[in-house]
Design brief:
40% of the residues lie in helices and 14% in strands. It has helices spanning 2-15, 33-54, 68-88, 99-108, 149-152, 190-205, 233-240, 244-263, 318-321, 328-344, 355-364, 376-383, and strands at residues 64-66, 95-97, 118-120, 136-138, 157-161, 165-172, 177-184, 214-218, 223-227, 231-232, 276-280, 285-289. The longest helix has 22 residues, at 33-54. It is elongated.
C-alpha cells in the first residue's frame, strides 16, 4: 500500500498550485483526502478548459484553433487521470469515468498537443459541462434517483443539541430505515467548522464495528448522515439496568473499541457515557463510539491553547496542564471513570466496597500520572483479575 500512497502523493504534487477543492463534495465516497482533492482538481480543470474549448465550438467543415495553455492543462489532467486509473484499478479506490466524458477525453487526445495550440477537428460539438454530477465514480457505487433531500428531511426530529451541532433523526423511505443527521450550528467559526469536518473524515477512516458509521457529508450545509443508535450508554445503564455480566461485556467491547482507536494513533479526548452508544440487535447489543469532534491527531493544528475542557470525564488537571497536552494517561483516566460508571452508576471510587475494583479505579484516577494505566491493554489485563 505504501507504493500506492506514494504514487497518489506524487500526482498530488504534480498538480501543485492547481489543486482546487471546488468539487470536493462530489468525491466524498473516496475515503482518502488526497484522492478527493485530485479528482476535484481534475474536475475543475475539465470545467475550465472544456468551457474555454466551447468558445471555439462547434466547428464547421474546417475545424478551429484551441489555445496552447488550455491544451497543456487538459493534457495534464488527462495524464494524471489515466495514471490513477492504472494504479488504482486493483485497490479499494478503483473508479470508472463517466461514459460521456470517457468519449470526450478519448476524442480530445486525438488532437491535443502541448505546444503551439491544438487543431480542433471539423464537426466537433460543444462539450456538456458537469457542475453538479461527478465525472469519476467508485466502481462499487451506483447512481440512485432516491427521494429528494427536501422531502427526505421534511420530518426531521431533533434528538440532541450541543455547542457544536444539532442532531436529528429522520426516516428514509427508500431504505426503509431511520438515520441520524448531524448539522453544525450556524454560529461556528471557520476553525470550528473545520473541526466538524475533521470529525466526519476521521470516522470514515475508522472502519470498525465499534465505531458509529457515517455516510455522506454535505459541504454546503455542513452536515452529515450517520447510522441511528438505540441508546446512549448513560440511557442504557440508567433505564435498562443491565445485569452484571452484560455490564462486563459492555466494558470489554469498550476496551476493544479504544484499543482499535489508539492503534490508529488517535486519542478521542471526549470520553463520556453520552459519547458511547448502544446498538440493539436481535441477538446482541453492540457498543459504538461516536463524537470525534475533539479527536487528537498527529500534526493537527486544530487544538488551541485555550480549548474548552469538554469531556465530562476528563482529568480536571487538564485545566492547568492545557488541553493540547492531552496524552494516553488522560485517556485511560477518562476510561477508568467510564468503567466505574458502568459497574456502579458512579464515576469515582468513593462508594466502591469491592477491594479489587476500588484498587483498579484508584490506580486509573491517581493524581500521580506515573501510577496510572499506560494503555487500554493494561487496563483490560487488570480488569480481568477483578
Amino acid at each position: 500500500m505504501a507504493t500506492i500512497d506514494n504514487y497518489i502523493e506524487s500526482q498530488y504534487r504534480l498538480l501543485g498550485d492547481r489543486i482546487n477543492i471546488e468539487y470536493l463534495d462530489l468525491y466524498e465516497s473516496f475515503h482518502n483526502r488526497k484522492i478527493q482533492e485530485i479528482f476535484s482538481t481534475i474536475h475543475h480543470l475539465f470545467v475550465d478548459n472544456y468551457s474555454a474549448m466551447n468558445e471555439r465550438l462547434p466547428t464547421g467543415d474546417y475545424g478551429n484553433h484551441y489555445w496552447a495553455e488550455n491544451s497543456r492543462e487538459l493534457i495534464l489532467a488527462i495524464e494524471v487521470l489515466r495514471g490513477l486509473e492504472r494504479v488504482l484499478k486493483t485497490t479499494n479506490y478503483a473508479f470508472s469515468v463517466d461514459p460521456y466524458y470517457e468519449q470526450v477525453i478519448t476524442k480530445s487526445m486525438e488532437f491535443l498537443v502541448k505546444s503551439g495550440g491544438s487543431p480542433i477537428p471539423p464537426h466537433m460539438e460543444k462539450v456538456v459541462i458537469y457542475y453538479t454530477d461527478p465525472i469519476f465514480r467508485k466502481k462499487d457505487s451506483v447512481k440512485i434517483n432516491s427521494t429528494s433531500a427536501e422531502q427526505q428531511y421534511a420530518d426531521l426530529k431533533q434528538i440532541g443539541f450541543g455547542s457544536y451541532a444539532t442532531v436529528y433523526s429522520f426516516f428514509d423511505k427508500f431504505y426503509n430505515r431511520t438515520f441520524v443527521l448531524k448539522r453544525a450550528n450556524s454560529d461556528l467559526s471557520s476553525k470550528e467548522i473545520e473541526r466538524f469536518k475533521q470529525e466526519y473524515e476521521q470516522m470514515t477512516r475508522l472502519s470498525s464495528p465499534y465505531i458509529v458509521e457515517v455516510y455522506r457529508y454535505d459541504g454546503e450545509k455542513n452536515e452529515y448522515i450517520m447510522e441511528y443508535m438505540d441508546f446512549t450508554l448513560k440511557e442504557y445503564i440508567e433505564k435498562q439496568k443491565p445485569a452484571i455480566e452484560e455490564r462486563k461485556n459492555i466494558i470489554y467491547q469498550i476496551f476493544r473499541a479504544f484499543k482499535f482507536i489508539h492503534s490508529k494513533n488517535v486519542l478521542h479526548r471526549d470520553i463520556s457515557p453520552a459519547n458511547v452508544m448502544i446498538k440493539v440487535y436481535d441477538d446482541v447489543n453492540v457498543v459504538k463510539i461516536c463524537d470525534f469532534g475533539l479527536v487528537k491527531l498527529p500534526d493537527s493544528d486544530l487544538t488551541s491553547v485555550d480549548t474548552i475542557l469538554k469531556g465530562c470525564y476528563n482529568d480536571p488537571a487538564l485545566i492547568t496542564e492545557g488541553f493540547k497536552n492531552y496524552t494516553i494517561l488522560h485517556e485511560t483516566y477518562a476510561l477508568t471513570r467510564l468503567v466505574a460508571f458502568i459497574l456502579t452508576g458512579k464515576a469515582t471510587a468513593d462508594r466502591i466496597t469491592d477491594a479489587k475494583l476500588k484498587a483498579f479505579v484508584e490506580k486509573g484516577l491517581s493524581s500521580d500520572k506515573e501510577k496510572r494505566f499506560k494503555s487500554v491493554a493494561e487496563m483490560e489485563t487488570a480488569f480481568r483479575t477483578i
